[in-house]
Amino acid sequence: MIMNNLPQAVKEYFPYANVRPHQDKFIETVYAAVREKRSVLIEGSNGLGKTVSALSACLPAAVENDLKILYVARTHRQHERVIEELKAICKKQQISGVSLRGRNQMCLNTFAAKNATDARSLMEVCELLKAKDSCPYHRAPEEQNYEYLQLQHYITTHPCKASEIQRICRKKGICPYELVKTALPDVNVIALSYLYVFDPVIRTAFFKNLDSQLEQIILIVDEAHNLPETAIEIASSSMSLFVLRQAELEAEKYENKDAADFVRFFRKEIERLTEKIGQEEIISPESILEIIQKYGGTSSPRELVEQMHDTGCSIRRCLLAEGKNPRSYIHGMSEFLLRWLETIGDNSYINVASRYTTREKTKTAKLEIVALDPAKVTEPVFSATYANVVMSGTLQPLQAYAKLTKLPEDTFHCVLPSPFPKEHVLAVVCLGVTTAMDKRTPEMYHLIIKRIIEVVHNTPANTGIFAASFDVLNTLLATGLEKALNKPLFYEQKGMSSKANEKLVAEFKACGKGDGAVFLGVQGGRTSEGVDFPGNEMNSVIIVGVPYAEPTPRVKAQIAYYERCFPKLGREYGYVLPAMKKAVQAAGRPIRTLEDRGALVFLDYRFATKYCRGFLPSWINDGLKVLPCKEEVLAREIRTFFKL
Ligand code: SF4
């Protein structure tokens, strides 16, 4: 379709001669919403061209009103894709843009990058190093020479990928993170991770560099189905017994008797408390308050924890002065306890104590502050920006999403039809199989394996299998899945490093060029949510079971919290929706472009129920076939689809 139907202002930016099916509707909806300073919640499948559409639709309002576009997405690949589209747009209009990576990705200082455990701690280490003028890559304003200013000018006038900036800066010995930071106030579009916008601590620091307020921002949230979970992670925190033991050693090393006495006392009390619990228990927040009170006597718990915090801060300064990693366990412990005290009385948090086994097979315990309300993180952002474009391939039901994240009341809602030709997708549910807890018998697993074989043996190359949990995955293996297959099997293991996982996926993908292989992973895992398998990299995908979470105390608390906020919808929002989102994400792995063909096989009769089907996107649900529990029926369907 040619682009005649697009609004004139958008045509100035949209870089392609043709629009894809439904892409014009996507653009018009976003353009109309943003022009009216309203937000839009929009579902559109992969292959629709959402990135370039959202950018082209937002740029007219951004340029006219001197606004900045922040495009948040999860992976670096997605950030770089934004810059690639901006480079295409630049052939029509000069627009600047940068993909921003975290300090931990950009930092050239090996000491800092190696020693900080996460974005927040690296931010602190970096700030301390700069304050002491100890980072050779940092250029204070008076040290910024012509070459530096030239690079800065280039970034403010062109779309630049983080990887390109990194390469140039490495050669010139300049910190790429700091260089980009100084250019940010003059850049039109910034592609970055969710944390820069939704983590309040990181946001405060980031917006200082931006020289803008949220009101001057058009926010595009890509893969927005991830946001509620990410928001909950941002607002939650944990502290293990390991941290307490290290804090005690640290206090002894620094001969700080007060700190050592407190941490020892506190550790012993926490050990006593967690000894009695099962795997996971909700504990009263006051129980920790009482422990601190018991030790502190007349001092208030807050005063005591603040003293520990001061001690932690001075240890960090000492370590830095000695040229060492400025990590203080006392600091970490006190930050956690301050947060614990702050959240007492707030019913959108629960406090959890749990026992677990470490990778080294040691049994230990931890305390957690678990956030239950994603809106506590998202609402302050959504309500303050100029407009929000919240988009993904899986957002339905939109009403639920809008309520959970508290998008503004006047947000536009839009679901676009699938652009995939119907004949490219076979979606089937098999009756007679399930992973429901009370039906997990050896006979059931044998039956599931039979169905898997019917798919694998009739698929031209690669098949992906995504199990409801590691428990189901391991039982499939123990029941003889590998032996029953006529193709090599690659399987995920719990706790696998991301590097090992990437290698596993690459080897599996390569088999798509030959006779094919089978990949076995879990729904909600790294592979089922973050890796694309176009073409022969995955012809068929099998979803084994509905990935309902174990009904742990925190899951029950989440359901109860949502029930209080949204009467009669607690179970749906806290239990069913997250499971169905995982299943749909996994099912979408083989269908990434308009040319892809894929067989989607749901091995659990529950997917055929009216209730569950209500959570499937229309591109799966509309043509979903329900197959009887009979031998060879599934095999015939798969054979016919692939025309073997
Ligand atoms: S200034 Fe740059 S190179 Fe130096 S520590 Fe900070 S991020 Fe790393």
Low-confidence stretches: none
CATH structural class of the largest domain: Alpha Beta
Secondary structure: helix percent: 40-55%
State the major sheet. Answer: 8 strands, parallel
CATH architecture of the largest domain: 3-Layer(aba) Sandwich
Distance between the termini: 33 Å
Q: Kindly provide the radius of gyration, computed on alpha-carbon positions and rounded to a whole number of angstroms.
A: 26 Å
Mean pLDDT: 92
Question: Summary?
Answer:
The chain is an alpha/beta fold and 644 residues long. The protein has 30 helices and 19 strands. Helix 24 links the parallel strand 15 and strand 16.
Q: Any descriptors?
A:
single chain; about 650 residues; alpha/beta; Rossmann fold; Fumarase C, Chain B, domain 1; 3 domains; eight-stranded parallel sheet; seven-stranded parallel sheet; 30 helices; about 15% strand; globular; binds iron/sulfur cluster
